[in-house]
Target: SCP domain-containing protein
Amino acid sequence: MSSLTRLIAIACCLLSVVSSASVSTPDVPDCLKTSKKNYMAIPNHLIRQMMFTDVVAAKGQNSDLKYSCEMEELAYDLVNESGPIDHVDPDNIVFSMGNGKLNLKTAVDLWQDRLKEMGEKKEFGCNFAIGSTHKVACIFKSRYTTNGAFEIFTYRLRHWTT
Model:
């Protein structure tokens, strides 16, 4: 088999793996389609699916962890500092920032120990900001948090004014 034929065969295999990976994460909503809020959702659904897959694998939690557009919006507020950062429970956040090229997989790899230590969670969402310094954050909702406490936290974050 010629090297060109071999290269084409490898490319076809990789495309089928990528296609099957996107099919294997049906629980990841497309926040661009479902959000009615004025925030910048992750612009490419494939990026969201890859973040979901990488975070779930790094966290090692096998039960019912879902991706949430609401949490993605809170993560957007965090990375863009458009809300009261001091109201975010640090036990439910992973955050990275740096200079140079943004690599989301590297950020998740750096969080691996922290993700495992934080205990079981119900849902999470991630977002990032790219500028002279890039920022990446994921915010988690605890499995055992009452909705009332979470709603108060969410209300404060969304209605914060300076």
Summary: Strands lie at 66-67, 93-98, 121-129, 134-142. The longest helix spans residues 3-23. Confidence is low (pLDDT under 50) at residues 4-23, 148-162. Helices lie at 3-23, 31-34, 45-59, 69-79, 104-117, 147-158.
